[in-house]
Amino acid sequence: MTTQQLIEQIQLKKSFLCVGLDVDLNKIPAHFLELEDPIFEFNKAIIDATHDLAVAYKPNTAFFEAYGIKGWMSLQKTINYINENHPEIFTIADAKRGDIGNTSSMYAKAFFEDLNFDSITVAPYMGKDSVEPFLAFEDKHTIMLALTSNEGAFDFQTLDVDGTRGEAERSGAKELYKRVLETSKTWKNSENLMYVVGATKAEYFTEIRKIVPDSFLLVPGVGAQGGSLSEVCKYGMNANVGLLINSSRGIIYASKEADFAEKARAEALKIQQEMEAILQS
Amino acid sequence: MTTQQLIEQIQLKKSFLCVGLDVDLNKIPAHFLELEDPIFEFNKAIIDATHDLAVAYKPNTAFFEAYGIKGWMSLQKTINYINENHPEIFTIADAKRGDIGNTSSMYAKAFFEDLNFDSITVAPYMGKDSVEPFLAFEDKHTIMLALTSNEGAFDFQTLDVDGTRGEAERSGAKELYKRVLETSKTWKNSENLMYVVGATKAEYFTEIRKIVPDSFLLVPGVGAQGGSLSEVCKYGMNANVGLLINSSRGIIYASKEADFAEKARAEALKIQQEMEAILQS
């Protein structure tokens, strides 16, 4: 999917909601456990109930891998179901991958070709040659961690780093996540980059927009993790919206009863309506 | 496996060789492609030919995921084959995972419980709460990226960071990878940590050993990537050896002909003999 098609979907649906599919078998209605593929069937029910309110789905690979081969089959069925029934939906493999070049190429092949996701999340620690293999794929998107929504974000991401390493001149010092954003803009096919920026740090969006004014930002942390939608939009939105706001637990676990899909839709609708109001204001 | 058991194996085999299993179907002898599970059969042949010379095997998850469900089945069969036939071997899932706490818990479950690996590689960017869920597993080991063997290592890992963020006092500035090492020592169950340090940067081992004198270091980059075994040992070895030297392509692709297993063994033997000489010196 092209970025332009994603923007059109946002305008059409008046929504920039991404629904995170982090299925924990302990948290879904018990009747699913009797089915052959409970994870897929649960995802299918959530997708059926919310696809007109969301522009993106984000299966989290960990929650599939934890169930081994069966989990990987559920992931395959989930992405196929979305691609076949809702090709207008932007799909994100939340996988946080990244390795030396020849290995990153294999991950890109796994998620862009074998599974046919539109995008994948990656980690920046190993630098340019660990990310560029993902960027080489046309109309595929690589969503790199910049400033995450968890507590541990402050361990390394917000440390001041020198503008120029080893030189006495330290005036260029800035936080690591900013350096990550800046440096990534120099990489080949960097127009295929998007970034993860946690909603729990809304005050940072102003600074981030100075560095990447036009990029899409995938924003976790609204809902269960405590971030505010209106704050994120206030500081993070650009002319093309430029935001995908993720909600996982708040939507998919809105109820553990028979009405789980209805409740999931109600939660998604609440967020979509907030988004519609923001887009019109 | 406990660290003590790993040390005993190193002493017994006079080897601290780890064989990386990065199977690319384009690089293995053609007759494997006619078998039902070429990746597993190739790995099995490599393991059969080298298990007395190596103390560890490191399947690289990307090379399995690239083949989808079939690839995940090959991974399962490979780890089961090692665990059943060579329980004395230390197994490493080279997966470079890391995410918010509840997600990292799922990855830990996937690799430590479902697949029963002894260890997994993880990325540090998301900090403490992205790594601690892995550390909570007894007699399992979490191998965190510190200084990697690729060019991109210099993009962020070697940037100077301030000792104390936001304070005028900048005398504590040091490279990010050192800060990662230091900080990780304060995490819960940090005794379960090992670190990835690339062989291509042998001169860095002296500094690294000042911070983590007792930890095991997993060292890629000897062979195909150009690092020197003797240099790494000179600066990186501790009283318990404390090193696992990985070779992937140099061993498993020593030949593409019918003699591939023999040639792989010859390459592994060459390295083991160098290691034996170093251990006796």
UniProtKB/TrEMBL annotation, chains A, B:
It catalyses: orotidine 5'-phosphate + H(+) = UMP + CO2. Residues 16-264 form the Orotidine 5'-phosphate decarboxylase domain. SUPFAM superfamilies: Ribulose-phoshate binding barrel. It comes from the Bacteria. Keywords: Decarboxylase, Lyase, Pyrimidine biosynthesis. Pathway: Pyrimidine metabolism; UMP biosynthesis via de novo pathway; UMP from orotate: step 2/2. The active site is at K96 (proton donor). Gene3D superfamilies: Aldolase class I (3.20.20.70). Its EC number is 4.1.1.23. Pfam families: OMPdecase. SMART domains: OMPdecase. Belongs to the OMP decarboxylase family. Type 2 subfamily. NCBIfam families: pyrF_sub2. This is Orotidine 5'-phosphate decarboxylase. It comes from Flavobacterium palustre.
